[in-house]
Amino acid sequence: MSPKKILTRLELGRIEIGHRAVLSAGCHQVVSGTRPAERVVSLADSYRRLATPGGLVISTPITARPAATATSGSPLSERWSFLDPVSQAAWRATIRSVHDEGGLLVARMQCPGSQALFSTSAGGAQQGRASSPPEEALSHCGAFATAMRDLEFDGIELCCVVPDPGSSYSAVTRQDSAAGEAAPQQPVAFPAEILQLLIDTWGSDRVGVRLSPSVDDNAMDPFCALLAMLNDLEIAFLHLADAKPIEPKAGGVRITAAAARLRHAFRWPVIASGGFSLRQAVALVDSRWADAICFPHEQDGPTLLEQLTALKS
Q1: What's the pTM value of the predicted model, to 2 decimals?
Q2: Which of 69, 201, 251, 293 has the least CB density, counted as fewest CB within 10 Å?
């Protein structure tokens, strides 16, 4: 009998994974220990339990700020600067611990002041005119991208805040090559300059984008326009978080019409997350709406694979 599709290999650009059950380290991870050596060991151990042969782990959000601003006991993303020697030692040991188990680790990048970077305020750029991130933020993001590459992460995921399309935000525009005219501008904000910076540093085939889009029929046009732009960049994967693509159906899942349109708009691999049950995860991959499913960090990697293997059709 052939294995479940969720347990088969997948290429995410140049990131080749042995199965499609991805694990997220979560955004509330706290590292124990007061001495640097204890913190390094604690972080490495917490990620080792997520790793499996050929399995992909996505890190807790790491903020692209060169100086730490929070205190001990805060989430890791706020506690350490990515340039701090202890932070870099911890991530090196963590990457090694995941690699030793045969797994891969992608860094999730959280931009500092993301709302300010992605949106236009009442006194800022008008809708239809893209607002650029400040030069200082671009510099921080560039240094972050280089540092994560030099630490030998296997890829990088840009974690984006996509606001309500009804708000007044900067627009993504796309040239319609067939008509030779600009497509209508859609009110959706996106850090295109930061994404291009990541691509220049890593190559598009090791860069992913994480979005939490609405799948309401009345709010699809802005997201589809954004996905059309991402298609042209040929990124490694799109991570759709909390997209809620399914509705109940006897014996399985039914993909909503809005979610089907969203998936049709993007032609590269999609990782989906949203608290799906094991059966829902298997069904979503079988349906080809998602190419892989990201599970929360409450699961450890080996146990998750055992449960998926044992799951009866």
Answers
A1: 0.81
A2: 251
User: b/e for 147-167, b at 16 or more Cβ within 10 A?
Assistant: bbbebebbbbbbbbbbbebee
Tokens of 29: 């991870």
Residue 74 one-letter amino acid = S
Decide: 41 and 86 in contact? Cβ < 8 Å.
no
Q: Which two tokens stand for residue 181?
A: 């005219």
Compute how many other C-beta atoms are within 10 angstroms of the C-beta atom of residue 97.
21
What value, to the nearest 5°, has the Cα angle with vertex 222 and ends 236 and 277? 60
DSSP state of 298: T
Which pLDDT belongs to residue 62? 86
Q: Which phi and psi (to 5°) does residue 2 adopt?
A: -70, 150
Closest to 223 measured CA to CA, from 176, 163, 181: 163
**Domain ranges across the chain:** 5-310
The answer for 51, left when phi > 0, alpha when psi is -120 to 50, beta otherwise, is: beta
Bridge partners for 253 per DSSP: 248
Q: Which residues of the chain have pLDDT under 70?
A: 1-2, 26-41, 66-81, 112-133, 161-189, 214-219, 248-252, 313
Do 75 and 28 form a contact (C-beta atoms < 8 A)? Answer: yes
Asked if residue 157 lies in contact with residue 109, where contact means CB atoms within 8 angstroms, the answer is: yes
Would you state the structure tokens that stand for residue 52, as one six-digit string?
Answer: 């499996």
Query: Nearest 5°: CA angle at 51, between 66 and 103?
Result: 80
In this structure, what token pair is assigned to residue 149? Answer: 């590459």
**How many DSSP H helices and E strands does the chain contain?**
10, 14
